[in-house]
Amino acid sequence: MYRIQRLTGLLFLTISFVCFTSAVKAVEKSTLGKVSITAGQTPVQNQPVSVELPEIDFAGDAVHLVDLQSEKKTAIPAQIEKRGSQPDRLWWIYRGTLAPGKTRVLELKAGAVPQAQEVTIKDTGTAYQIRVGKHEVLDYNYKHIPAPKDLHPLYGRSAHIHPIVTPHGKIVSDEFPPDHAHQSGQFLAYTKCIFEGRPTNFWEIKSNKGRVRFHKLLSKQSGPVFGELQVEQEFVDLTGPAEKVALREIWTIRVWNQLEKNPAYWMYDITSEARCATDSPLILPEYHYGGMAIRGGRGWTKENCRFLTSNGKTRENGNHDRSLWCDISGRNAADESFSGFTILSHPGNFRFPEPVRIHPSMPYMVFTPSALGDWKIEPGSPNISRYRFLVHDGPALSGTDSIWQSYAHPPEVAFTLAAKPKTKN
Residue 29: which residues within 8 A CB-CB, separation 6 or more? Predict the structure, then answer.
């Protein structure tokens, strides 16, 4: 009798496990809706694409897409962006090319796609390191990094990105360069400023008039499509009787997964939202540099560093060119190869197309609206600027104009929720 009960129990457990497994697989394969993507005048080509989702809870939020017009029906990694009070967005990387005017229909399904690599964020103790799989892409330094002993202590800083690393492992940024130690990695700062009637300077930090520093972490997210870091920075004025925060700036840094074994470049976006921290505006008189900047790799010189703007201009004639994008690349002394990065400016930026400051001898550039005349950031009116970065091996990328067009003019995307099956009475 005991043996019969035991066998009956085992049979029940086996049937239950099979039913549970089948139910899980059924959920993972269930269709949640359809996505249609239509290219405008610009082709859609190997770029991030998104669509707003309806206010519905997708259990687990692990989803993927399937191209209904593809013979292989390959699963495409997708990721849901949680946006608090705003509707969630679905993101994926569109692989291949969708010609202007053409439409593609994809099916959204529950369940993740097994991936060899995701975009992750590691806290190193001094920086948030963003990686694609096992590859380091960039480090955002949130801890104060002391200046080297042979430099003045005032050069120490936080709130900058370094190193920036290519897919082949080349470092294309510098930190505390000996000739201009305040140009560390990638940073955003303004030079000629007036706050509460006093001249201040957030760029040349050795002047001890002002500086930009990390304040706090707001959020971070990893996933199969992107990894995102959101931090708050402070523009601190040091010219008054006590230090005072003039601007609070939110940086949203998003690194994209290229979904390729050997990508031609890493791609990441930065959105800067700078707001007045007091009732006083930050006045920015006309000046020839100040804004979103990058300092090129150690060892890049006038002789081995090249610039190229979207208008085909170079170091010799490109300073303050009003460019859609600008590339800087330098030659590596070890193997004579070139590597570098391209900054793409968004059409929604103030004074777009912004002039790009190209230094006549040093390896740095900065998109600078101040070159076109006086302006200011006023209370209640934040300055929001957006940029996309392509970190590449080799010289300037071919096809950057198409990449900029895709960035500036995203396709039309619509989502249709799957109909729920009718229940029997």
Answer: 109, 110, 111
